[in-house]
Amino acid sequence: MGVKPTIGRKSNKNPPILSHEFVIQNHADIVSCVVMVFLVGLMVQSTSPIASLFISLHHNVSGTEPTRDVPRGEPFLYEAGWKDICAVFFYSQVCIVMHAILQEYILDKISKKYHLSKSRLSALNESGQLVVFHLVTLLWGGDAILREGFIFNISYLWDGYPDHPMSFLLKLWWVVQAAYWVHTIPELYFQKVKKDEWAGRIRQAAAAFAFVAVAYGFKFQRVGVCLMVLHSLAEFVAHSYRLNTIMRGEREDYLDKFLGVVNGSVFVCVRLCSLVLGVLTFYYGLAGAAPLLLRVAALSALVSFQVFLMFNFITEAIKQRQEARQLALSKPKKEKKEKPKKEKVKKIPTDDSDLPEVDQNTNKTLRQRQALKAK
Protein backbone atom coordinates (compact mmCIF):
# COMPACT_ATOMS: atom_id res chain seq x y z
CA MET A 1 0.00 0.00 0.00
CA GLY A 2 1.34 3.44 -0.87
CA VAL A 3 0.28 7.05 -0.62
CA LYS A 4 0.59 9.43 -3.53
CA PRO A 5 2.41 12.61 -2.53
CA THR A 6 0.56 15.90 -2.93
CA ILE A 7 2.88 18.57 -1.56
CA GLY A 8 6.61 18.00 -1.93
CA ARG A 9 8.64 16.01 -4.41
CA LYS A 10 6.42 13.90 -6.61
CA SER A 11 7.30 10.46 -7.83
CA ASN A 12 5.57 7.77 -9.84
CA LYS A 13 6.63 5.11 -7.31
CA ASN A 14 4.63 4.41 -4.17
CA PRO A 15 7.15 3.47 -1.46
CA PRO A 16 6.16 1.41 1.59
CA ILE A 17 4.56 3.28 4.48
CA LEU A 18 6.98 4.59 7.14
CA SER A 19 9.98 3.95 4.89
CA HIS A 20 12.58 6.68 4.38
CA GLU A 21 11.37 7.39 0.85
CA PHE A 22 7.76 7.58 2.05
CA VAL A 23 8.64 10.14 4.74
CA ILE A 24 10.72 12.21 2.30
CA GLN A 25 8.02 12.28 -0.39
CA ASN A 26 5.18 13.02 2.02
CA HIS A 27 6.96 15.04 4.71
CA ALA A 28 5.02 18.23 3.93
CA ASP A 29 1.68 16.42 4.21
CA ILE A 30 2.73 14.80 7.50
CA VAL A 31 3.91 18.11 8.99
CA SER A 32 0.81 19.97 7.75
CA CYS A 33 -1.31 17.38 9.60
CA VAL A 34 0.67 18.14 12.78
CA VAL A 35 -0.01 21.85 12.28
CA MET A 36 -3.71 21.14 11.81
CA VAL A 37 -3.78 19.18 15.09
CA PHE A 38 -2.56 22.29 16.93
CA LEU A 39 -5.09 24.52 15.14
CA VAL A 40 -7.99 22.18 15.89
CA GLY A 41 -6.79 21.92 19.48
CA LEU A 42 -7.03 25.70 19.74
CA MET A 43 -10.77 25.47 18.96
CA VAL A 44 -11.52 22.86 21.61
CA GLN A 45 -11.99 24.27 25.11
CA SER A 46 -10.22 21.45 26.95
CA THR A 47 -7.07 21.56 24.77
CA SER A 48 -7.07 25.29 24.01
CA PRO A 49 -4.59 26.24 26.80
CA ILE A 50 -2.03 23.69 25.53
CA ALA A 51 -2.47 24.64 21.87
CA SER A 52 -2.26 28.37 22.61
CA LEU A 53 1.07 27.72 24.31
CA PHE A 54 2.48 26.83 20.86
CA ILE A 55 0.50 29.16 18.60
CA SER A 56 0.05 32.39 20.59
CA LEU A 57 2.73 34.76 21.85
CA HIS A 58 3.21 34.97 25.61
CA HIS A 59 5.05 36.99 28.26
CA ASN A 60 3.16 40.22 27.63
CA VAL A 61 4.00 43.00 30.08
CA SER A 62 1.34 45.55 29.15
CA GLY A 63 -1.75 46.02 27.05
CA THR A 64 -5.52 45.74 27.49
CA GLU A 65 -8.39 44.42 25.42
CA PRO A 66 -10.83 46.94 23.88
CA THR A 67 -13.65 47.98 26.25
CA ARG A 68 -16.51 50.45 26.20
CA ASP A 69 -14.43 53.03 28.02
CA VAL A 70 -11.37 52.38 25.84
CA PRO A 71 -12.70 51.18 22.44
CA ARG A 72 -9.24 50.77 20.91
CA GLY A 73 -7.62 49.28 23.99
CA GLU A 74 -3.90 49.51 24.55
CA PRO A 75 -1.31 47.74 22.38
CA PHE A 76 0.23 44.63 23.89
CA LEU A 77 3.97 44.68 24.57
CA TYR A 78 5.99 41.51 25.12
CA GLU A 79 9.32 40.39 26.49
CA ALA A 80 11.37 37.23 26.03
CA GLY A 81 10.52 34.10 28.04
CA TRP A 82 10.73 30.31 28.14
CA LYS A 83 7.32 29.83 26.47
CA ASP A 84 8.78 31.21 23.25
CA ILE A 85 10.50 27.84 22.75
CA CYS A 86 7.07 26.27 22.13
CA ALA A 87 6.24 28.98 19.59
CA VAL A 88 9.56 28.41 17.81
CA PHE A 89 8.74 24.68 17.52
CA PHE A 90 5.28 25.33 16.05
CA TYR A 91 6.40 27.95 13.54
CA SER A 92 9.32 25.76 12.46
CA GLN A 93 6.68 23.22 11.34
CA VAL A 94 4.96 25.97 9.37
CA CYS A 95 8.30 26.83 7.75
CA ILE A 96 8.70 23.21 6.60
CA VAL A 97 5.31 23.33 4.87
CA MET A 98 6.07 26.68 3.22
CA HIS A 99 9.48 25.37 2.15
CA ALA A 100 7.85 22.41 0.39
CA ILE A 101 5.27 24.61 -1.38
CA LEU A 102 7.96 26.97 -2.67
CA GLN A 103 10.11 24.01 -3.74
CA GLU A 104 7.37 22.27 -5.72
CA TYR A 105 5.50 25.11 -7.34
CA ILE A 106 8.41 27.42 -8.20
CA LEU A 107 11.91 25.94 -7.90
CA ASP A 108 11.14 22.50 -9.37
CA LYS A 109 9.48 24.12 -12.40
CA ILE A 110 12.49 26.39 -12.93
CA SER A 111 14.89 23.42 -12.74
CA LYS A 112 12.85 21.47 -15.31
CA LYS A 113 12.82 24.45 -17.66
CA TYR A 114 16.60 25.02 -17.59
CA HIS A 115 17.71 21.34 -17.35
CA LEU A 116 20.36 22.05 -14.71
CA SER A 117 23.10 19.71 -13.55
CA LYS A 118 23.08 18.26 -10.03
CA SER A 119 25.48 20.85 -8.63
CA ARG A 120 23.58 23.76 -10.21
CA LEU A 121 20.28 22.25 -9.06
CA SER A 122 21.50 22.09 -5.46
CA ALA A 123 22.67 25.72 -5.65
CA LEU A 124 19.33 26.77 -7.20
CA ASN A 125 17.34 25.13 -4.40
CA GLU A 126 19.49 26.70 -1.69
CA SER A 127 19.60 30.23 -3.12
CA GLY A 128 15.94 30.13 -4.19
CA GLN A 129 14.80 29.44 -0.64
CA LEU A 130 17.18 31.99 0.89
CA VAL A 131 16.18 34.74 -1.55
CA VAL A 132 12.56 34.45 -0.43
CA PHE A 133 13.49 34.25 3.25
CA HIS A 134 15.80 37.27 3.17
CA LEU A 135 13.26 39.27 1.18
CA VAL A 136 10.57 38.57 3.80
CA THR A 137 13.06 39.36 6.58
CA LEU A 138 14.02 42.63 4.88
CA LEU A 139 10.45 43.84 4.29
CA TRP A 140 9.03 42.68 7.62
CA GLY A 141 12.00 43.88 9.67
CA GLY A 142 12.15 47.17 7.79
CA ASP A 143 8.46 47.75 8.52
CA ALA A 144 9.06 47.04 12.22
CA ILE A 145 11.98 49.50 12.29
CA LEU A 146 9.84 52.22 10.73
CA ARG A 147 6.92 51.56 13.10
CA GLU A 148 9.16 51.63 16.18
CA GLY A 149 10.91 54.81 15.00
CA PHE A 150 14.46 53.44 15.24
CA ILE A 151 15.52 54.94 11.92
CA PHE A 152 14.51 58.49 12.88
CA ASN A 153 15.86 58.41 16.43
CA ILE A 154 18.83 56.09 16.76
CA SER A 155 19.01 56.63 20.54
CA TYR A 156 15.93 54.37 20.84
CA LEU A 157 18.30 51.46 20.26
CA TRP A 158 19.79 51.84 23.76
CA ASP A 159 17.53 54.18 25.72
CA GLY A 160 15.92 52.44 28.70
CA TYR A 161 18.02 49.26 28.43
CA PRO A 162 17.31 46.54 29.60
CA ASP A 163 13.60 47.47 29.70
CA HIS A 164 12.97 46.97 25.98
CA PRO A 165 9.46 45.51 25.48
CA MET A 166 8.53 44.40 21.98
CA SER A 167 5.39 44.93 19.94
CA PHE A 168 3.46 41.92 18.66
CA LEU A 169 4.89 42.11 15.12
CA LEU A 170 8.45 42.57 16.34
CA LYS A 171 8.27 39.59 18.71
CA LEU A 172 6.67 37.41 16.03
CA TRP A 173 9.48 38.45 13.67
CA TRP A 174 12.09 37.18 16.14
CA VAL A 175 10.20 33.91 16.69
CA VAL A 176 9.98 33.30 12.92
CA GLN A 177 13.69 34.03 12.53
CA ALA A 178 14.59 31.37 15.09
CA ALA A 179 12.03 28.94 13.62
CA TYR A 180 13.41 29.28 10.10
CA TRP A 181 16.97 28.34 11.05
CA VAL A 182 15.69 25.45 13.19
CA HIS A 183 13.71 24.06 10.24
CA THR A 184 16.77 24.06 7.94
CA ILE A 185 18.29 21.11 9.85
CA PRO A 186 15.55 18.52 9.05
CA GLU A 187 15.29 19.97 5.54
CA LEU A 188 18.76 18.55 4.81
CA TYR A 189 17.19 15.09 5.15
CA PHE A 190 13.88 15.92 3.45
CA GLN A 191 15.54 17.53 0.41
CA LYS A 192 18.17 14.77 0.03
CA VAL A 193 21.06 17.20 0.29
CA LYS A 194 24.48 15.62 -0.34
CA LYS A 195 26.35 14.56 2.77
CA ASP A 196 29.38 16.68 1.88
CA GLU A 197 27.17 19.83 1.95
CA TRP A 198 25.72 19.13 5.38
CA ALA A 199 28.63 20.52 7.40
CA GLY A 200 28.61 23.94 5.71
CA ARG A 201 24.85 24.36 5.91
CA ILE A 202 24.69 23.22 9.54
CA ARG A 203 27.41 25.73 10.46
CA GLN A 204 25.49 28.50 8.70
CA ALA A 205 22.22 27.60 10.44
CA ALA A 206 23.92 27.23 13.84
CA ALA A 207 25.66 30.62 13.54
CA ALA A 208 22.43 32.37 12.50
CA PHE A 209 20.41 30.70 15.26
CA ALA A 210 23.08 31.56 17.84
CA PHE A 211 22.96 35.24 16.81
CA VAL A 212 19.15 35.27 17.08
CA ALA A 213 19.19 33.52 20.46
CA VAL A 214 21.87 35.79 21.95
CA ALA A 215 20.30 39.02 20.70
CA TYR A 216 16.84 37.89 21.82
CA GLY A 217 17.90 36.51 25.18
CA PHE A 218 20.13 39.43 26.23
CA LYS A 219 17.49 42.04 25.28
CA PHE A 220 19.37 43.36 22.25
CA GLN A 221 16.24 43.04 20.09
CA ARG A 222 16.29 46.64 18.87
CA VAL A 223 19.84 46.79 17.61
CA GLY A 224 19.55 43.13 16.57
CA VAL A 225 16.66 43.74 14.19
CA CYS A 226 18.60 46.59 12.54
CA LEU A 227 21.71 44.44 12.10
CA MET A 228 19.72 41.52 10.71
CA VAL A 229 17.83 43.71 8.24
CA LEU A 230 21.15 45.07 6.96
CA HIS A 231 22.55 41.56 6.69
CA SER A 232 19.42 40.34 4.86
CA LEU A 233 19.81 43.15 2.33
CA ALA A 234 23.33 41.98 1.45
CA GLU A 235 22.27 38.31 1.39
CA PHE A 236 19.26 39.02 -0.81
CA VAL A 237 21.42 40.78 -3.40
CA ALA A 238 24.11 38.08 -3.21
CA HIS A 239 21.68 35.19 -3.73
CA SER A 240 19.89 37.06 -6.53
CA TYR A 241 23.26 37.42 -8.26
CA ARG A 242 23.94 33.73 -7.67
CA LEU A 243 20.56 32.72 -9.15
CA ASN A 244 21.25 34.82 -12.23
CA THR A 245 24.63 33.10 -12.62
CA ILE A 246 23.05 29.64 -12.26
CA MET A 247 20.35 30.23 -14.88
CA ARG A 248 22.61 32.21 -17.20
CA GLY A 249 25.23 29.46 -17.42
CA GLU A 250 28.56 30.38 -18.98
CA ARG A 251 27.17 33.29 -20.96
CA GLU A 252 28.23 36.78 -19.90
CA ASP A 253 25.94 39.75 -20.36
CA TYR A 254 25.47 43.27 -19.07
CA LEU A 255 22.97 42.13 -16.42
CA ASP A 256 25.55 39.79 -14.91
CA LYS A 257 28.18 42.54 -14.75
CA PHE A 258 25.68 45.01 -13.31
CA LEU A 259 24.54 42.58 -10.59
CA GLY A 260 28.18 41.81 -9.79
CA VAL A 261 28.95 45.49 -9.22
CA VAL A 262 25.76 45.96 -7.16
CA ASN A 263 26.54 42.87 -5.09
CA GLY A 264 30.03 44.09 -4.23
CA SER A 265 28.92 47.63 -3.46
CA VAL A 266 25.99 46.57 -1.25
CA PHE A 267 28.14 44.02 0.59
CA VAL A 268 30.83 46.56 1.50
CA CYS A 269 28.28 49.22 2.52
CA VAL A 270 26.39 46.76 4.74
CA ARG A 271 29.59 45.66 6.48
CA LEU A 272 30.59 49.28 7.19
CA CYS A 273 27.09 50.25 8.40
CA SER A 274 26.97 47.21 10.70
CA LEU A 275 30.32 48.15 12.26
CA VAL A 276 29.27 51.77 12.78
CA LEU A 277 25.94 50.73 14.29
CA GLY A 278 27.63 48.22 16.58
CA VAL A 279 30.20 50.70 17.86
CA LEU A 280 27.54 53.38 18.48
CA THR A 281 25.32 50.98 20.39
CA PHE A 282 27.68 48.78 22.38
CA TYR A 283 30.57 51.20 22.96
CA TYR A 284 28.76 54.52 23.45
CA GLY A 285 25.02 53.98 23.84
CA LEU A 286 25.03 51.15 26.40
CA ALA A 287 27.92 52.56 28.45
CA GLY A 288 26.78 52.39 32.06
CA ALA A 289 23.52 50.59 31.23
CA ALA A 290 24.94 47.15 30.38
CA PRO A 291 27.85 45.30 32.03
CA LEU A 292 31.23 46.07 30.48
CA LEU A 293 32.00 42.41 29.86
CA LEU A 294 28.74 41.92 27.98
CA ARG A 295 29.30 45.00 25.83
CA VAL A 296 32.89 44.03 24.98
CA ALA A 297 31.87 40.46 24.16
CA ALA A 298 28.98 41.57 21.93
CA LEU A 299 31.08 44.16 20.08
CA SER A 300 34.01 41.75 19.66
CA ALA A 301 31.71 39.07 18.22
CA LEU A 302 30.13 41.57 15.83
CA VAL A 303 33.47 42.96 14.60
CA SER A 304 34.95 39.46 14.20
CA PHE A 305 31.94 38.32 12.18
CA GLN A 306 32.10 41.34 9.86
CA VAL A 307 35.86 40.90 9.33
CA PHE A 308 35.33 37.18 8.63
CA LEU A 309 32.66 37.91 6.01
CA MET A 310 34.80 40.62 4.40
CA PHE A 311 37.83 38.31 4.26
CA ASN A 312 35.79 35.56 2.59
CA PHE A 313 34.34 38.03 0.10
CA ILE A 314 37.77 39.38 -0.92
CA THR A 315 39.23 35.87 -1.16
CA GLU A 316 36.37 34.70 -3.36
CA ALA A 317 36.65 37.78 -5.61
CA ILE A 318 40.42 37.21 -6.10
CA LYS A 319 39.78 33.53 -6.85
CA GLN A 320 37.15 34.34 -9.48
CA ARG A 321 39.47 36.83 -11.20
CA GLN A 322 42.29 34.29 -11.33
CA GLU A 323 39.97 31.65 -12.78
CA ALA A 324 38.71 34.13 -15.38
CA ARG A 325 42.29 34.97 -16.42
CA GLN A 326 43.26 31.31 -16.70
CA LEU A 327 40.16 30.62 -18.76
CA ALA A 328 40.95 33.52 -21.08
CA LEU A 329 44.55 32.34 -21.54
CA SER A 330 43.54 28.75 -22.18
CA LYS A 331 41.26 29.70 -25.05
CA PRO A 332 43.17 29.71 -28.41
CA LYS A 333 43.19 33.03 -30.17
CA LYS A 334 41.22 33.08 -33.39
CA GLU A 335 43.54 33.86 -36.26
CA LYS A 336 42.17 35.90 -39.06
CA LYS A 337 42.13 33.76 -42.15
CA GLU A 338 43.07 35.68 -45.28
CA LYS A 339 40.83 34.96 -48.18
CA PRO A 340 42.83 33.60 -51.15
CA LYS A 341 42.88 35.98 -54.08
CA LYS A 342 41.20 34.71 -57.15
CA GLU A 343 43.68 34.49 -60.00
CA LYS A 344 42.49 35.91 -63.24
CA VAL A 345 42.50 33.25 -65.90
CA LYS A 346 43.88 34.58 -69.13
CA LYS A 347 42.07 33.48 -72.21
CA ILE A 348 44.43 31.82 -74.60
CA PRO A 349 43.65 32.63 -78.23
CA THR A 350 42.70 29.52 -80.08
CA ASP A 351 44.49 28.61 -83.31
CA ASP A 352 42.47 27.73 -86.37
CA SER A 353 44.55 24.62 -86.76
CA ASP A 354 43.13 23.30 -83.46
CA LEU A 355 39.55 23.55 -84.80
CA PRO A 356 37.79 20.96 -86.91
CA GLU A 357 37.91 21.32 -90.71
CA VAL A 358 34.32 22.57 -91.04
CA ASP A 359 34.98 25.38 -88.49
CA GLN A 360 38.22 26.33 -90.24
CA ASN A 361 36.36 26.85 -93.58
CA THR A 362 33.65 28.91 -91.79
CA ASN A 363 36.27 31.24 -90.24
CA LYS A 364 37.98 31.76 -93.61
CA THR A 365 34.68 32.68 -95.24
CA LEU A 366 33.89 35.24 -92.48
CA ARG A 367 37.31 36.86 -92.83
CA GLN A 368 36.96 37.21 -96.58
CA ARG A 369 33.55 38.90 -96.22
CA GLN A 370 34.96 41.36 -93.68
CA ALA A 371 37.84 42.21 -96.03
CA LEU A 372 35.46 42.88 -98.97
CA LYS A 373 33.32 45.20 -96.80
CA ALA A 374 36.40 47.11 -95.74
CA LYS A 375 37.27 47.82 -99.38
From TrEMBL:
- Compartment list: Membrane
Q: Which GO terms describe its cellular component?
A: endoplasmic reticulum membrane
- InterPro entries the record matches: TLC-dom, Translocation_assoc_membrane
Transmembrane annotation, as ranges: 30-55, 88-107, 261-286, 292-315
Where composition is biased (Basic and acidic residues), the residues are 335-350
- Superkingdom, according to UniProt? Eukaryota
Topology within the bilayer? Multi-pass membrane protein
Protein name stated in the entry? Translocation associated membrane protein
What organism is recorded for this protein? Papilio polytes
* Keywords for the protein's UniProt record, in alphabetical order: Membrane, Protein transport, Transmembrane, Transmembrane helix, Transport
Main subcellular location of this protein, as a coarse class:
membrane
